[in-house]
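ok so for the tutorial part 2 we go from a plain amino acid sequence to predicted structure tokens. step 1 is just haveing the sequence, like this:
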Amino acid sequence: MNYLAHLFLAGDSAESLIGNLAGDFVKGALHDQFTPGIREGIMQHRRIDAFTDTHPHVAAFRRVLIPDHGHYSRVISDVFFDHFLATSWSRYSTERLNDFVARVFATMDGQPLPGRLAVVYPHIRHWILSYRDIDGIRIALTNLSRRLSRHPHLESATHHLIDSRAELERRFREFFPDVVTFARSFFTTENTEDTEPSL
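step 2 — the prediction. this is what the tokens look like for a chain of 199 residues:
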């Protein structure tokens, strides 16, 4: 999952939003370097990623990408998920996408941000809104490629959003309600347990 999906699946508090957003920038064990709320958000991010990686519809989604992109199909699918969430937003929320983005960033603005998230945070709002368009996805994948050592030209994958759109969108729509249910269960679990659930 990518930025938009993780924010959508997070709780409403600033710490939950920040923790879920920070999950891609924080590696290793979580100790007292984070507040309990941010730590719980990072834990949720990791559990959502683990759930996503083992879901059969996600596996089918990635099989469309693997012949051309191999192990990069995982990161490409994460960005594509945000595209399909953004373009079908009204299926999952009664709040307009622009209003949602404005609200969650207003909640996070001015809060201390962990690690590298503080560097990219000013750009994420624009990136999320650009995911509605294939050109925005192309730019996102181009930027990802530049940060990878082999510069794998991930932007070439955007043709799948045209050529295989029906299948990819169907797989996303079959998968996404399951991860929403899973994310909601995390909040129920954390209210009744004090320990980190195992992945």
